[in-house]
């Protein structure tokens, strides 16, 4: 069977990370994605390097698989006409311009909806289309800093740190693709599309999850705890003989299995460690005991033994170890394609009716490569309308 979004067309007026991440998900699901870029330089992530692979930035490579690219200067009335023509026969439009900017080009949702009532239109911005911060520029790091999550990330007594990937961008891209799919589902019933307003700030604040609940329940700011968890013990990284190991004990049965595996059965007789609340209260007494034992052997030994006995654990991988992992290779997440280097190739989920399938367009778009294809589509569309 075909991929779920096969036959749908997406007009991609986004750049940087969040928008391209969203449209890449739609491409992975089978949609035809036409990426519109600025003439000359294209998406600014094309220049975010080094490293570069055949002139393409590693950053751009990670976000634009399966798309076609055309160049249009949207301040030009002829280019605006091309977009309006494309909209007539498209299903989704995703844009990441400053709020209000596309209205200046007559490409905002109210105008385009008149041409295609079934269009699902999604705007992605730093702070959303409304509110006092509407016109602020907003990159991932800005939203992350303001979310409250950055203040809890890192180790106590040390400066705030960013996560090594753009989590606000990823959150916004995921929420955008989810909302688009929901609107497409509703369209099956109503025949109408709709407008979606996604912001990086809203998206990453929603990730506060239990940290926000902790604050409202206690009135206290959550502390920075490194890899440790505020409410589960042991649930953190430990130093082994050679490298770090994560142990994640989520219930008392796993705690008992951990003690037996580490040959620390004596801890099972101590009431201060009997239950998870007990272990949280006595964290500072327990962690040094476990740390001393775990330093005696390698991370791979402990991980193998603990997992065999039902205790979730894993060594802290470097990226080279991740891409060589047999489970990742079995699932086929990394493959070599048109860029001549291995990239994240597969969507990280599987469907029963799409085994082994991927979007037919697997190459990374070069600037101007697909302009002729789009012109042909527009010519065919115009001819059809004239008939």
Structure description:
Strand 1, helix 1 and strand 2 form a beta-alpha-beta unit. Helix content is 39%, strand content 14%. The strands form four sheets. Strands 5-2-1-6-7-8 form a six-stranded parallel sheet, with helices on both faces. It has 16 helices and 13 strands. The protein has 387 residues and is an alpha/beta fold. The chain has helices at 18-28, 58-61, 77-88, 101-104, 109-115, 140-146, 167-190, 200-205, 210-218, 252-261, 276-281, 283-294, 299-308, 319-324, 326-331, 371-386; strands at residues 9-13, 32-37, 52-53, 56-57, 67-71, 92-95, 120-125, 194-199, 235-239, 244-248, 313-315, 334-336, 342-344. 33% of the residues are buried. Helix 1 (18-28) crosses helix 7. It starts with 8 loop residues before the first strand and ends with a helix. It has two domains: 9-207 and 325-386, Rossmann fold (3-Layer(aba) Sandwich), CATH 3.40.50.10540; 235-239 and 244-315, formyl-coa transferase, domain 3, CATH 3.30.1540.
